[in-house]
Specification:
about 250 residues, TIM Barrel, eight-stranded parallel β-sheet, 8 strands
């Protein structure tokens, strides 16, 4: 049985003081956690948030990483730096990284392999644009991203891999794929994983990300092939995030 995961991606939001206030409010609410809970704040908030959340059972994630151990890479963050801050998960391949910063599948693959090497858990984001969906190319696009990003992956560490399906047209737009639409793609993802990794695919969690809200989380999480959610805007308010992690089973 795969454990569910609710992961909050704060993106470029929250100063350190705001992050600390969020943590205080969330801990005061003390929501029931029906699965694993993760917050991925900006790099600048990791240290302070980690201290606030210590012992709470809420885990710490990063929004990105560089694919080298150290060196002349101005502005980048290494896996060792994240480990030193208590980070357990790292988001890679988010659509905003792909679209705004032109990150390729090849670079994302390098990041994934480096995370596996350093025993950090990758959250690999994949998904299609509105134009690709309207052209009927969503399945081909998702398949090609999976194939390229998982090249030479360490099968012995697949249980630590998380896939996040995020239809780009539903991110930050208020639009959301229906639970049935999300399940169809997530089922396809699992089938593709089974083709490549056999029964190991059953251990890989698949999340849905795309304008997830407290009002929609129950329908999404009820689907057979959806093991949680990667949440953007609704993870920025402690009260909303508390409702998300306490979804009804």
């Amino acid at each position: 049985m795969r454990q569910t995961l609710i992961a909050g991606n704060w993106k470029m939001n929250m100063t350190t003081a705001e992050a600390e206030n969020f943590a205080d409010e969330l801990l005061k609410l003390n929501p029931k956690k029906n699965g694993e809970v993760l917050i991925c704040p900006p790099f600048t908030d990791l240290y302070a948030l980690g201290k606030k959340l210590a012992g709470s059972g809420i885990k710490l994630g990063a929004q990105n990483v560089f694919a080298e151990d150290s060196g002349a890479y101005t502005g980048e963050i290494s896996p060792a730096m994240l480990l030193d801050l208590g980070v357990e998960y790292v988001i890679i391949g988010h659509s905003e990284r792909r679209q705004i910063f032109n990150e390729s599948n090849e670079l994302i693959n390098k990041k994934l392999l480096k995370l596996q090497e350093k025993n950090l858990k990758p959250i690999l984001c994949i998904g299609e644009t509105l134009e690709e969906r309207e052209a009927g190319r969503e399945y081909d696009l998702v398949k090609s991203q999976l194939s390229a990003c998982l090249k030479d992956v360490n099968a012995n560490k697949l249980k630590d891999l998380v896939i996040a399906y995020e239809p780009i047209w539903a991110i930050g737009t208020g639009r959301s794929a229906s639970a049935n639409d999300a399940e169809a793609i997530c089922k396809f993802i699992r089938q593709e994983l089974e083709k490549n990794f056999g029964d190991l695919a059953k251990e890989i969690r698949i999340l849905y990300g795309g304008s997830v809200k407290p009002a929609t989380i129950n329908d999404i999480i009820a689907k057979e092939n959806i093991d949680g959610a990667l949440v953007g805007g609704a993870s920025l308010k402690a009260a909303d995030f508390a409702k998300l992690v306490a979804y009804e089973v």
